[in-house]
Amino acid sequence: MNLTKRIGGHDGSSAARHLLLMTVLAAASLFGRAPDVLAQQQVQPDENLKELREDVRSLKEGMTAVQGELQEIKKLLSKQPAAATANEAPREILLDLGGAPSKGDAGARLVLVEYSDYQCPFCSRYVRDTLPLIERDYIKTGKIKYVFRDFPLESIHPNALVASEAAACAGEQGKYWEMHDRLFGNQGALAAADMAAHARAVGVNQPNFQQCLAGGRHKEPIRKGMAEAISLGVSGTPTFFIGLASPDSSKVKVLRVLKGAGSYVNFKEVLDGALAAQP
Questions:
Q1: What residue ranges in the chain does DSSP mark as E strands?
Q2: Shared domain check, 156 and 72
Q3: Global pTM?
Q4: Residues 111, 245: contact at Cβ < 8 Å?
Q5: 144 pairs with which residues across the strands?
Q6: Alpha-carbon distance 159 to 119, whole Å?
Q7: Is-contact 195 218, C-beta < 8 A?
């Protein structure tokens, strides 16, 4: 049986540990038989010699199988996304955020920029578990400005681009963040045919929304922004840039880069450090 299927999906880490435990116990069980077999051999050497040889052969085969399983587990675990880690910006990066959807204090000096994909399960986990806490402690309190940038990975997420377009179309009617939350909360329904229902749910004008989506006017700007992000080193989602806003332009000088859907604790440490370092 395929090991990835046995371990299962994006939650393979815990299942892999379970499998590791089971294989180690199986190995221990095989080893545990050896002393009993040796004792039997001392009592009845002629009758048990063949059985002993069979047990040794089985033991070797079992350990070979265990080693193979462990190697596969290591490979699988190495593919699991790591928790968000913060790194100094490797070079000077200036982001131009003109026109990008944002919330929080427009004049806040510290800016948190998220590059995300509406079909990415790790992005959804971040939106569900971490973003509400950041919003409570940093966005609503005016400490930071929060900016969302689209990074639809079309090769693996075929519905991500149309979801980004739908959010932009809803944004034309002042419902960007409502649509943002709606799409991340319904990742199983992100096909183009699903967007009308989402539009009704967030209360936008249906004809205008459909005209916007059918016209595709946000498609090229989204792809252009994604190409720019790739040139700045973004390779997966979610990726976050933390930087300082220029007081006289829409540009942000990046200080730190975080990759992965980390916990609130990860973000709190970096945001507090950046706020404390401000002049």
A1: 85-88, 94-96, 102-104, 110-116, 144-150, 239-245, 251-259
A2: no
A3: 0.69
A4: yes
A5: 110
A6: 7
A7: no
How many domains is the chain built from? 2
Classify residue 170 by burial, with Cβ atoms within 10 Å: 0-12, 13-18, 19+.
buried
In three-state secondary structure terms, 86 is strand
Region at 83 (left for phi over 0; alpha for psi -120 to 50; beta for the rest): beta
**Amino acid symbol at 243:** G
Tracing tokens 């300082």 back to the chain, one arrives at: 244
CA distances from 87 to 3, 90, 96, 123, 133 (A): 34, 8, 21, 19, 22
pLDDT (tens place) for every residue of the chain, 279 residues total: 433 333 333 444 444 444 444 444 444 444 444 444 444 444 455 666 777 777 666 666 656 644 544 454 344 334 444 445 556 655 788 899 988 999 999 999 999 999 999 999 999 999 999 999 999 999 999 999 999 999 999 999 999 999 999 999 999 999 999 999 999 999 999 999 999 999 999 999 999 999 999 999 999 999 999 999 999 999 999 999 999 998 888 899 999 999 999 899 999 999 999 999 987
- Domain of 183, CATH number, reads 3.40.30.10
Taking alpha carbons only, the member of 240, 241, 236 closest to residue 251 is: 241
Residue 42 sits in which domain range? Answer: 3-78
Is 93 found in the same domain as 71?
no
19 shares its domain with 156:
no
- CB 148, CB 116: distance < 8 Å: yes
- Which runs of consecutive H residues, i.e. helices, occur in 44-137? 45-78, 121-129, 131-134
